């Protein structure tokens, strides 16, 4: 890292082992780390010589304004600091990294983008749910569960998603799960479509709820699960019956060897 530069880095979905080597390198060199709410303390422990600046945003809680965060990055860089902006997941996947990069560019600040493992992929993998599976889907659609106002996104074409998205991965969707499910079913998505909720993905506190689209909202309320969470809607969820690798590592037997009715190659 060079003085006056900002590195926009993804910290991954939670497990410190999923941090990239570039992000670890930045943590060891940075003068200042501006970090999000979902960055674990274990990751921040690697920033032994840096000032730590909290800039987390959580729904329904007092949060820093995005413009203030972006301008803080400019201020620190202009002061000659080596600045690490550490964001949960990937900075360019519903992480507003693009907005921060635009602000840096407008103020003449050099920056570098370091991708991270997004929760919509890594979090599902830790739950034993492959985001793609050849026998299920040839596409996957990533959707945000709320817009800039905090409400359910009004610009989405629910019919197109219901009919064309083989697998839906929804970020920040727990609050509006009922609205999302109702919109999809009203647009033709079958209510018995498998669905899963993965909370605190990749951390020791990870919880996974398996349900269906029709029962998604009621089961979330009954379970008392809390965000952060990823919602997944699609038949790939059934693969968890065989691929829940964390349960297998603890000695549990797979619930099914062939959840999709398609034998593994060579079996």
TrEMBL record:
Family per similarity comment: Belongs to the precorrin methyltransferase family.
Domain Tetrapyrrole methylase: 6-216
Gene Ontology annotations of biological process type: cobalamin biosynthetic process; methylation; siroheme biosynthetic process
Protein name: uroporphyrinogen-III C-methyltransferase
SUPFAM superfamilies for this protein: Tetrapyrrole methylase
Enzyme Commission designation: 2.1.1.107
InterPro entries (UniProt xref): 4pyrrol_Mease, 4pyrrol_Methylase_sf, 4pyrrole_Mease_sub1, 4pyrrole_Mease_sub2, CobA/CysG_C, Siro_Cobalamin_biosynth, Uropor_MeTrfase_CS
Gene3D superfamilies named in the record: Cobalt-precorrin-4 Transmethylase, Domain 1, Methyltransferase, Cobalt-precorrin-4 Transmethylase, Domain 2
GO molecular function per UniProt: uroporphyrin-III C-methyltransferase activity
Pathway: Porphyrin-containing compound metabolism; siroheme biosynthesis; precorrin-2 from uroporphyrinogen III: step 1/1; Cofactor biosynthesis; adenosylcobalamin biosynthesis; precorrin-2 from uroporphyrinogen III: step 1/1
Keywords of the record: Cobalamin biosynthesis, Methyltransferase, Porphyrin biosynthesis, S-adenosyl-L-methionine, Transferase
């Amino acid at each position: 890292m060079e003085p006056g530069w900002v590195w926009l880095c993804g910290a991954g979905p939670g497990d410190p082992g999923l941090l990239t080597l570039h992000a670890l390198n930045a943590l060891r060199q940075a003068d200042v780390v501006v970090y999000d709410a979902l960055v674990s303390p274990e990751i921040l422990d690697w920033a032994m010589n840096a000032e730590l600046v909290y800039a987390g945003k959580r729904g329904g809680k007092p949060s820093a304004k995005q413009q203030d965060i972006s301008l803080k990055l400019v201020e620190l860089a202009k002061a000659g600091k080596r600045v690490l902006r550490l964001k949960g997941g990937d900075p360019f996947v519903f992480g507003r990294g693009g907005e921060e990069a635009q602000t840096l560019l407008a103020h003449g600040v050099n920056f570098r983008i370091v991708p991270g493992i997004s929760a919509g992929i890594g979090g599902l993998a830790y739950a034993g749910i492959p985001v793609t599976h050849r026998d299920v889907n040839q596409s996957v659609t990533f959707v945000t569960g709320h817009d800039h106002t905090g409400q359910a996104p009004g610009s989405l074409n629910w019919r197109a998603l219901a009919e064309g998205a083989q697998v839906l991965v929804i970020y920040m969707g727990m609050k509006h799960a009922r609205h999302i499910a109702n919109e999809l079913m009203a647009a033709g998505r079958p209510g018995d479509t498998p669905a899963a909720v993965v909370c605190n993905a990749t951390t020791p506190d990870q919880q996974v709820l398996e349900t269906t689209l029709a029962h998604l909202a009621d089961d979330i309320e009954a379970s008392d699960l809390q965000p952060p969470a990823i919602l997944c809607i699609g038949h790939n969820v059934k693969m968890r019956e065989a691929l829940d690798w964390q349960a297998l590592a603890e000695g549990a037997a797979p619930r099914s060897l062939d959840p999709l009715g398609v034998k593994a190659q060579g079996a």
